[in-house]
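Recap from last week: sequence in, structure out.
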Amino acid sequence: MKKASFIFLLVVVGMLFSTSLFGAEEITQTGAELKKWLGFSAAFAIGVAALGGALAQGRAAAAALEGIARNPGAKSAVFTPMILGLALIESLVIYALIIAFMLVGKI
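Predicted structure tokens:
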């Protein structure tokens, strides 16, 4: 449980960094400082998203394979929802990649 709460804390911190920097105005005198934080936010957002996506996909695949191993006759009933779940998990990582590209575009 501690691992899940730590990952949740990382995600919340990443969201705070990325959302606050979207409101940044035109780069002024402190442009170097803003560029540094924009780059950090982009890297942090995609890193946390990739970590969370990989953990979630691993657990989903492991659970599906365990279910198929226990009951091989249920392969068709388990395989399709597993693929759908993996696609939805991966879509969240792709959204984070898009956000990272948007942040890098502000640099």
